[in-house]
User: What shape does this take?
Amino acid sequence: MSAFIRRCVVCGAANAGLLPYPAGMQDGVCGQLACLHTVQLQSHAQRSAATQRRMDSVRAVVGGTDPIVLLPSNRRRTTRLPAHRRADFAAHLEAHLDASSDAAGAITAGDETPHELEALSPRETLAVSQGCATCRGFCCQSGGTTAWLTTETLRRVRRNSSFDTAALRAAYLRDLPHRSYRRSCVYHTARGCALTPALRSDTCHQYLCEGASTLVALVRAGADVAHAAATEGSQIARVGRVALPEQAAVAPNPAR
Ligand code: SF4
Ligand code: SF4
Ligand SMILES: [Zn+2]
Assistant: This one.
């Protein structure tokens, strides 16, 4: 019956698919390389067109020729940090504190080679910080009740401080805010990340989204100003001016 005939949306072949027949089609596209390639090109073109439309609407607002950088956007609301989320975080912290310390309280070796974080320059940090403030921490939404903390991060923090396990536990719990974004990282507040920078995870220190990486690239290319636009789908949520002064004497507390 015709109702059950599947046709590839590109080549139209009925019941098309990888051999042996009738292999399934993926999202309505048969397994032929040419069809898969066509769909890939189409979706790339659609993404490029959507990006250009967003760029155009930001340009209409800011004018001029300064670079525009598109960022994601956190649109969540803040709420009182619930006790169960505090407890979940405390349990996560405890497990990794345990793993980072042996019975005598010494830092465990672990499998990984101890490393230090690759730091951005003060100017690059300043640029990223302003972009993240415009975005309001979209990537922090995935921090949940772990804040991305791992045993390796806790080892690094202990290597770089005089904290023992008890002091470290107290420091992490002390920084938990009263209010944070709903269902986001427990430290994610309307004023940025509530966790002391030295205590943040390797992931938090090193992750840069595509837009934030572009801001770093602009600094390295000698730009002195850019417009950061926080977007959600086709909507522009906020636009912020990112000033990149020649010298940034003090690295700010990153906004995320
Ligand atoms: S790196 Fe910054 S700009 Fe990018 S998603 Fe995270 S908070 Fe937003
Ligand atoms: S930067 Fe701060 S708020 Fe964001 S995920 Fe890391 S600890 Fe959480
Ligand atoms: Zn096909």
